């Protein structure tokens, strides 16, 4: 359809613009997310830069309200934080979700924070402090800088985990959540499962497609380069032909996000509103041409500055988009938002319904009242009325669900153990039982009114109490139950603490141990290596047994039965000795047992048989059982028994000599008067065996007279 120039220039086009309006047939409420930027100069005086009345917003059409907190620094660099509470309270009264929005075009602090994981906990603690204080429902991130998708995913997961311990102020049955606002052209990995799984929904910044020019420009609330959606989203989708065949498209943004894994129902398309465009726009600018997803934008280079300058043959109406557009030259075009028309809202609603999107996001709510002063109450501006018409079918926001009935019933609490009046000592288990008509949140034990341990949030409600540090005597032990409404009930009992007397000392041990020789026996004759063994017993316990020889330590003490010692007797002088065993008990008491033993050396091995055929002659015998002839006894200072049988080397007898002083056992061949010469060549060896019974000096001499 084409307009005649006179008709358009004189704004005489009302009847011509009566076309079939788009009315959705799906009676399902869509999301309407709007932003409030407290520092935005688009708010009229006296509210610009000051306190904004919360009743100036269209609460009956909004579902979500984002309260901008500037650049995302911690704490927020905004002087309007004190208005969070009023707006959030009003939103919850109207059944609208409210949250903090951080980031934006000056999001350097947010970029820095997300790039430094060490700062996450402080940032989260700071912002969740505002969320908790005002019972907000979400935190929204407007990413416009350069971010690492990995960092965003890890940060979102950390924040998401922290949000799981909190309740939404508008819907206590759910946790606060994360909202993402971004364009597909930003450095965010839209295919990241971590980001996708931690984000509730996405506001796509498709309002930026028209030159990012937020002001009095004709296209700001136009159909936003609407492209008719035929189910494929292919490059051939078109709203016209020729210069209008390809244009940046909010549909294509949604299709790309959906291809990356995002459900259509979690995507909101953006439509910005700068109110001057609706009523008295004076500047015309060009939308993007030649691309499908935005790209660079340029102005009309001063071709036109007002509506009246647009040639009639350059104005066209698109039946599908239900909107006007203008062509300049052969390849430049722009959508037109004309006074009194709602083509932008209609087109956006068609995109939302045809693609099954979640809804729309509006930049920003302050623009509706840009030129109105004072602010019209209840959001009565023209743009808001079009939102009501196309995004809320009844025209009235359904009232919020009634609040749950006030719980006035306090919980019931009883002490299970100990019982009232019990006497306690050491570590005891304190246990209480609690019940409530709605639910018990915790049980806290008290001792004399002071907390005893931490609250127990789950049954059985118990506490292991070490009573030792507490003074003896009577004390009040209490159990306090708290329910979900904050109501409390308390049960007190009295217990007596006491310290048990110390155990008596062990009795003094006066019984000495018993000890006896197992081997050898008293009077035994010992030689070589023998085993000494003793037995010992005691009423408390034997600690050790040690042996003595003639009162000198013999070996090391033995600390465990059997008490034994291997003793080599060879180095000890033959004769009578005293062998002792001393047992010692655990108290240090000792008992000694002595026995006498006789030590003897073993006999020497038998001599070799006589050499009956020695080389060089026969043997010369001096003594064989008796003095051989011609040998005689020539001893002096020596008493000799020539027939002793005590020590016999060979034969049946030996000479036993007892000397009291220096003496000698001597044999002489023949008498002293008549010596008999000895033929030394008759023998070849001299055999002499001596058994001394005491230390002696032995000298053997062979002499000639």
Notes on the structure:
The chain is 14% helix and 28% strand. The protein is elongated and about 185 Å long. Strands 1-2-3-4-5-6-7-11 form an eight-stranded parallel barrel, surrounded by six helices. It has 705 residues and is of the alpha/beta class. It is built from ten helices and 31 strands.
Spatial strand arrangement across the major sheet: 1-2-3-4-5-6-7-11
Described by its quaternary structure, the protein is: single chain
The low-confidence parts are 1-28, 208-248, 274-306, 370-376, 393-398, 613-617
Helix percentage: 10-25%
Number of helices: 10
Tally of DSSP β-strands = 31
* Overall mean confidence score, pLDDT: 75
Q: State the distance separating the first and last CA atoms.
A: 174 Å
The Rg value, from CA coordinates, equals: 59 Å
Note the beta-strand portion: 25-35%
Secondary structure category:
alpha/beta
């Amino acid at each position: 359809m084409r307009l005649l120039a006179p008709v358009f220039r004189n704004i005489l086009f009302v009847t011509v613009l009566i076309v079939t309006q788009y009315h959705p047939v799906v009676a399902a409420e869509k999301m309407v997310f709007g932003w409030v930027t407290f520092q935005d100069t688009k708010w009229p005086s006296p509210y610009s830069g000051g306190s904004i009345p919360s009743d100036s917003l269209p609460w009956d059409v909004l579902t979500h309200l984002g309260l901008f907190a500037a650049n995302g620094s911690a704490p927020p660099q905004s002087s309007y934080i004190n208005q969070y509470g009023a707006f959030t309270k009003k939103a919850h009264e109207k059944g609208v979700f409210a949250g903090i929005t951080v980031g934006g075009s000056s999001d350097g602090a947010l970029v820095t924070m997300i790039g430094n994981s060490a700062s996450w906990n402080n940032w989260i603690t700071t912002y969740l402090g505002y969320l908790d204080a005002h019972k907000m429902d979400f935190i929204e991130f407007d990413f416009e800088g350069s971010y690492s998708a990995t960092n965003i995913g890890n940060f979102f997961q950390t924040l998401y985990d922290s949000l799981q311990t909190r309740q939404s102020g508008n819907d206590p049955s759910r946790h606060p959540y994360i909202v993402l606002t971004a364009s597909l052209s930003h450095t965010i990995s839209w295919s990241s499962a971590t980001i996708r799984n931690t984000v509730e929904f996405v506001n796509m910044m498709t309002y930026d497609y028209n030159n990012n020019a937020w002001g009095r420009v004709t296209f700001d609330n136009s159909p936003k380069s609407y492209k008719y959606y035929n189910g494929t989203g292919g490059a051939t989708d078109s709203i016209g032909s020729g210069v209008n065949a390809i244009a940046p498209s909010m549909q294509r943004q949604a299709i790309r996000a959906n291809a990356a894994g995002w459900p259509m129902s979690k995507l909101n398309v953006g439509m910005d509103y700068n109110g001057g465009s609706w009523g008295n726009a004076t500047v015309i600018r060009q939308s993007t041409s030649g691309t499908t997803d935005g790209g660079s934008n340029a102005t009309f280079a001063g071709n036109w500055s007002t509506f009246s300058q647009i040639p009639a043959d350059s104005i066209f109406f698109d039946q599908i988009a239900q909107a006007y557009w203008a062509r300049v030259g052969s390849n430049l075009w722009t959508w037109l938002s004309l006074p009194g028309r709602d083509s932008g809202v209609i087109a956006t609603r068609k995109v939302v319904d045809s693609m099954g999107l979640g809804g729309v996001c509006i930049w920003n709510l302050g623009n509706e009242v840009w030129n109105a002063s004072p602010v019209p109450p209840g959001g009565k501006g023209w743009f808001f009325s079009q939102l009501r018409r196309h995004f809320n079918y009844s025209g009235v926001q359904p009232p919020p669900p009634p609040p749950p009935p006030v719980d006035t019933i306090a919980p019931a609490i009883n002490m299970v153990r100990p019982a009232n009046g019990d006497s306690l000592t050491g570590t005891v288990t304190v246990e209480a039982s609690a019940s409530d008509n709605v639910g018990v949140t915790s049980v806290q034990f008290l001792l004399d009114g002071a907390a005893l341990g931490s609250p127990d949030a789950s049954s059985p409600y118990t506490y292991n109490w070490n009573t030792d540090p507490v003074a003896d005597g009577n004390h009040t032990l209490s159990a306090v139950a708290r329910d979900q409404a904050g109501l409390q009930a308390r049960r007190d009992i009295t217990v007596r603490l006491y310290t048990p007397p110390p155990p008596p000392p062990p009795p003094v041990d006066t019984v000495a141990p018993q000890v006896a020789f197992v081997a050898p026996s008293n009077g035994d004759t010992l030689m070589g290596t023998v085993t000494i063994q003793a037995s010992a017993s005691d009423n408390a316990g034997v600690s050790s047994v040690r042996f003595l020889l003639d009162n000198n330590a013999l070996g090391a003490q033995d600390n465990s039965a059997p008490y034994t010692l291997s003793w080599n007797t060879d180095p000890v002088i033959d004769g009578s000795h005293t062998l002792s065993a001393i047992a010692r008990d655990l108290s240090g008491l000792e008992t000694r047992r002595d026995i006498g033993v006789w030590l003897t050396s073993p006999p020497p091995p038998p001599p070799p048989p006589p050499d009956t055929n020695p080389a060089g002659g026969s043997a010369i015998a001096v003594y064989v059982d008796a003095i051989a002839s011609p040998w005689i006894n020539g001893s002096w200072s020596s008493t000799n028994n020539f027939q002793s049988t005590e020590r016999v080397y060979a034969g049946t007898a030996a000479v036993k000599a007892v000397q009291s002083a220096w003496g000698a056992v001597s044999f002489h061949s023949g008498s002293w008067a008549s010596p008999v010469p000895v033929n030394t060549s008759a023998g070849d060896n001299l055999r002499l065996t001596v058994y001394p019974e005491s230390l002696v000096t032995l000298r053997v001499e062979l002499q000639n007279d």
